[in-house]
Design a protein that fits this description.
Strand order of the largest sheet: 4-5-6-7
Shape: globular
Radius of gyration: 15 Å
Strand content: 35-45%
Order of helices and strands: EEEEEEE
Structural class: mainly beta
Distance between the termini: 38 Å
Helix content: under 10%
Oligomer: single chain
Number of strands: 7
């Protein structure tokens, strides 16, 4: 997966690099940037099953997209400038707990 400067999440074949699908997730963003601790600008992408989670730092947004259908499922306004993330799947509670 590649989040491009034009705001598209590109799903590519891992072997050939062939473009399989594009999902529009944000507006275009500036390509000439320098990341500092006081102004995070670099996005992050994390996969969990068929879902991709993409941070859009300039917009303060987290995008949830279904890579199988090519659709944005949710836009979550986080505020700030979210960058790096870790997605932790919910764990089913065992009956013995």
């Amino acid at each position: 997966m590649l989040y491009s400067r034009n705001g598209q999440l590109e799903i590519r074949d891992g072997g050939s690099g062939k473009l399989l699908r594009e999902i529009p997730v944000s507006s275009s963003f500036e390509s000439n940037f320098h990341e500092h601790v006081d102004k995070a600008v670099l996005p992050d992408i994390v996969m969990l099953g068929d879902r991709a989670y993409i941070t859009i730092p300039p917009e303060g947004t987290l995008i949830e997209a279904d890579v199988r259908t090519g659709k944005v499922l949710r836009r979550i306004d986080l505020g700030g400038q979210p960058t790096r993330m870790l997605v932790v799947p919910a764990r089913a509670t065992a009956a013995a707990d």
